[in-house]
Amino acid sequence: xxTSGARPLWQGRALAVLGxxxxxxxxxxxxxxxxxxxxxxxxDFPLSSAVLGLxxxxxxxxxxxxxxxxxPLERRLGIEWLTVIALVAIAAGLILRGLVAESVGLxxxxxxxxxGVGMGNILMPPLVKKYFPDxxxxxxxLYTTAMAFxxxxxxxxxxxxxxxxxxxxxxxxxxxxxxxxxxxxxxxLMTQRATTESxxxxxxxxEPGGVPASDDSAFSVTGPIATSPSSRxxxxxxxxxxxxxxxxxxxGTSSIMAYVSFAWLPVIMIDIAGVDxxxxxxxxxxxxxxGLPSSLLIPVLVVRFHATRxxxxxxxxxxxxxxxxLLLAPVPGLLWLWTVLFGLVGLLFPLALVxxxxxxxxxxxxxxxxxxxxxxxxxxxAVFPILxxxxxxxxxxxxxxxxxxxxxxxxxxxxxxxxxxxxxxxxEWETRHGAW
Length: 436
Prior knowledge:
Layout: H1 14-32, H2 38-42, H3 49-77, H4 79-97, H5 103-131, H6 136-165, H7 167-172, H8 175-201, H9 231-238, H10 242-273, H11 277-289, H12 291-305, H13 308-328, H14 335-343, H15 348-358, H16 363-395, H17 399-411, H18 413-419, H19 425-433
Helix pairs in contact: 1-4, 1-5, 1-6, 1-8, 3-4, 3-5, 3-16, 4-5, 4-8, 5-6, 5-15, 5-16, 6-12, 6-15, 9-16, 10-11, 10-15, 10-16, 10-18, 11-14, 12-15, 13-14, 13-17, 13-18, 15-16, 16-17
């Protein structure tokens, strides 16, 4: 995709820019703000290991389940209204989480949050495609950077705020961003309604060539648009396209690395290198921080320079070398190097999100593709942290679990090469089966 004919980012779509960025920030701050203050919560009411384990498993499970529910809801309600509903769920859940008085309430409030986040995860790439077809690279850069920023900021401020104002305020304060994200989308909906009423009262004047003028033309998507079958039929078609499974494995690999790392990396560092908990926590933060520069660079490199395959190889092989370093030289002085190398897997996340936007022709197919890819990816992410723990218990060490993590990275390389094909899922279907 090129940027020829692109108009200024803010021209006629400032509300969409603000809406996407505030929603992106809320998707991660809602997740990352809980774990740092668990000790503060436990001082008010007991939190068993089972409850903490359930809360740790909720994100990928909710993301997968509500990812599958999002396409039919979007088809019925529209992508903007469903985004508003997702943000309302996030904001309400955050406030409720700050008011709970026992562990069951904490789990239920957290599930409400993750339901909203699960829908928002699916909707963001199609929203970028719908409103910024001429600026996908730039908007995906801003969107993924906002997500990366909101991943490591909450852990930095959550504890100081909890110490100063209590854990309830520390948890609930992030609802401000979700509420703020609702406002631009309501403005977009009001603008669309006014445009629709104006168009209804005054029929559009045909332009040369017989194409009616429309304010919505600025938000059109690339590629031919035709009357399409039902979402269920299209979703079933996606499962028959190798490119879709390649994208799912690409996203799934990124999710596996992230959830395995946040679940086990500090423990691994302590066990294999003998570092203290503070150092292990710093290394986990370093791993997460690598995602920030990736979010700044990857979307532009993919959209403008079509560098999908080199970037995937760089992330997967770099991550595998980091794992190999932890296996062969787990000494304290080199842990930062192995962590940085392993952290290169962080570039797979923005890479996968960009591909969801550019590997589909229309907003509708982007919603379905996003749902399929992210649901499969998060289901894998829900399984692997448990699997790694079971392997550790069975082998009484971290060698086999680390080998499995490295093997996942290497095994995903063919999928990354297929995902690098400059074709849409509609192209793939039409080549194999005829008209989409």
